[in-house]
Each structure stands twice: as C-alpha cells, then as structure tokens.
Write a structure and sequence with these properties.
This protein is mostly beta strands and 94 residues long. The protein has one helix at 38-50; strands at 17-19, 24-34, 56-69, 72-86, 91-93.
Length: 94
C-alpha cells in the first residue's frame, strides 16, 4: 500500500525516513521539466530539490502538462508536491 506521498515510479529512496514525534513535515510545490517524459520531469524535480533539501520522504504528482510544437511533444512538465522532514527532529531510519 502506498502512502499519500509515495509513487510506484520509484522516485523514493529505498530507505524510509520518519520523524520522531514531535516532528514536522513541510510540503512544497515544484515544477519539473524534461524533454523525455513526465516521469523524467518528476525525477528532475526530485533530483534538483535533493541538492538543497534533506530528508525528502515523498512526492505527489499534482498536474502534468506538455509543450507541443508542430504536432510533437517537445517538453514535459509536472507539478509535484514534495514532503520533507523539517529539522531538528530526530531522524529514525527504518
């Protein structure tokens, strides 16, 4: 069973992180862009967010769009909501 922020697409780390109470999870919206696929656009959003955010626990794809030129999709966009643990909560690896 997948939680609200987990996906079947493998965007999550195989290591699960949970905040010990009282923990705080923050949600942010991001837009990923790719010239390959919507899945790759989501991967790009997570990869970029991971450069500045620690403890990302999941993403929820909210919206998918594309740019079309001359009858071909040339750019894929996805809006995702990313969840991450706000420090200084103690992190417990499962």
């Amino acid at each position: 069973m997948l939680s609200r922020f987990e996906t079947k697409g493998g965007l999550m780390s195989p290591r699960t992180e949970h905040a010990k109470a009282p923990g705080v999870i923050r949600l942010i919206e991001l837009v990923g862009v790719s010239d390959k696929s919507w899945s790759d656009a989501a991967q790009q959003a997570v990869a970029r967010a991971s450069k500045t955010l620690r403890h990302i626990t999941g993403v929820d794809v909210l919206h998918s769009t594309a740019v079309v030129r001359e009858g071909e999709i040339v750019e894929y966009h996805v809006t995702v909501k990313a969840a991450f643990i706000v420090e200084p909560a103690e992190i417990e690896a499962a």
